[in-house]
Amino acid sequence: MAGRAGAYLELMRPKNLVLAGATVPLGAYFVLMDGQQAFPWLAVALHTMAVVFFTGAGNAMNDIKDADIDRTAHPQRPLPSERLTLQQAQGFTSLLWGLSVFSHIGGLLAVEPEVGVYLPTVLIYILAVILMVTYDHGPATKNRGLSGNIVISLLVAAVILYGASGVGGVTAPVVWWIFGVVFLTNLAREMVKDCMDMEADEGSRQTLPMTYGKEKVRMAAYVVLMGALVCLYMPFWRGPFAFGQLVLQTPAILTLITLNGPLYKGDDVLVAGRIRAAMLLGLIGFVVAGSL
Question: What pTM does this model have?
Answer without folding.
Answer: 0.87
